[in-house]
Amino acid sequence: MPQIKKITDLTAPELDLFSRYSESQLFHINEPKPGIFIAESPNVIERALNAGYEPLAVLIEEKQADDLIPKLFFAYPELPVYTAKFDLLTNLTGFALTRGLLCAMKRKILPSVAEICEGKHRIAVLENVMNPTNIGAIFRSAAALGMDAVLLTSGCSDPLYRRAARVSMGTVFQIPWTCFPKNADLSCGGLETLRSLGFQTAAMALKEDSVSIDDPKLLAAEKLAVILGTEGDGLASATIGGCDHTVMIPMAHGVDSLNVAAASAVAFWELTKNRKDLIS
């Protein structure tokens, strides 16, 4: 059982990881080794622990400690745990914590694209999706609706950023994912890599030559990569031109597009609905 230390001073050095580094700084803090991320809320932290992520320190609201520390961190007797009153935590972080709990955790070395894609049949590929809320929502939909993995280009927001992981409800720790190398985004080798791994590629885009999301060719594909683009601009023209299919979701009332997270949910549902290995 971890030893708990009460914090009353906002300048305490024990709080550095939680208050005096940006998420980007934590990402790079141990280079060239993987960095650190901050997970928020019991549900997210529990899923990270179950996925094998190593906790480094915990900051928790005093009244939550007796309940959550034994439940989540019993197996980590040397883990530093710091408690503080709710108002101090809010002043420290600048926002109200979900269930008053933060955990600093070590990142893992990301697997290669080939390793992630091995044995997979339906993957989501995100090109330059920069909003962490959308990243989290897409991961949650991917996990819930039967996608096997998620790949991200280097221009995407980090799935382990606090907000992305929280919005995902911790599914970023359940569904396999990785990033393309910076010099191998979709139009610079990424599509070729997917094709070499046996995937047909389907670009979600508003083009006149698009096929409907329920086109039988898509449902029949043994391996399919569903490619979604950034908010507003969508996929790059070179990416669309390099894909095997261009796909559109039919819409009514003159609506021309959906938010990328909403579009992902529709696409994932439609393109996995014939799978027999999903558990309802």
Shape: elongated
Strand content range: 15-25%
Helix content: 25-40%
Uncertain spans: none
- Sequence of secondary-structure elements: EHHEHEHEHEHEHEHEHEEHEHEH
Q: Describe the biggest sheet?
A: 7 strands, parallel
Strand arrangement within the widest β-sheet reads 8-7-6-11-9-12-10
Structural class: alpha/beta
Rg: 21 Å
Spell out the key features of this protein.
single chain, 280 residues, alpha/beta, seven-stranded parallel sheet, 12 helices, 34% helix, 20% strand
How would you portray this structure in words?
There is one protein chain. The protein is α/β, with parallel strands linked by helices. It has helices at residues 16-19, 23-28, 42-50, 62-73, 86-93, 113-117, 132-144, 162-167, 190-196, 216-220, 237-242, 260-272, and strands spanning 4-6, 36-40, 55-61, 81-84, 101-106, 122-127, 149-152, 177-179, 200-204, 211-212, 224-229, 245-248. Helix 7 (132-144) packs parallel to helix 12. The longest helix is centred in the middle third of the chain and has 13 residues, at 132-144. It is elongated and about 65 Å long. The mean pLDDT is 89.
